[in-house]
Amino acid sequence: MLGKMIGQKYFSIARTWVPTLAVWGSVGGVALVHFTDWRLILDYVPYVSGKFKNDD
């Protein structure tokens, strides 16, 4: 269905870019966590959020 809307040629070109975009998206996500407040973001990850409990 999507191939009919945008054309078969452009659909096959887009399919070849999916792995590259997935890798760069993952790299961007890791860079975001690295360069920002990592505790703020990793508090939403279930395994990691239990390791750093504050005893306030």
TrEMBL record:
Kindly list the biological process annotations in GO that this record carries: mitochondrial electron transport, ubiquinol to cytochrome c
Tell me the superkingdom of the source.
Eukaryota
Keywords on record: Membrane, Transmembrane, Transmembrane helix
Q: Does the keyword rRNA-binding apply?
A: no
Q: What is any one of the record's Gene Ontology cellular component terms?
A: mitochondrial inner membrane
Which SUPFAM superfamilies does the record match to this protein?
Answer: Subunit XI (6.4 kDa protein) of cytochrome bc1 complex (Ubiquinol-cytochrome c reductase)
Entry's transmembrane regions? 12-35
Pfam families xref list: UCR_6-4kD (PF08997)
- Kindly provide the name given to this protein in its UniProt entry: Cytochrome b-c1 complex subunit 10
Source organism: Salmo trutta (Brown trout)
Q: Which gene encodes it?
A: LOC115157407
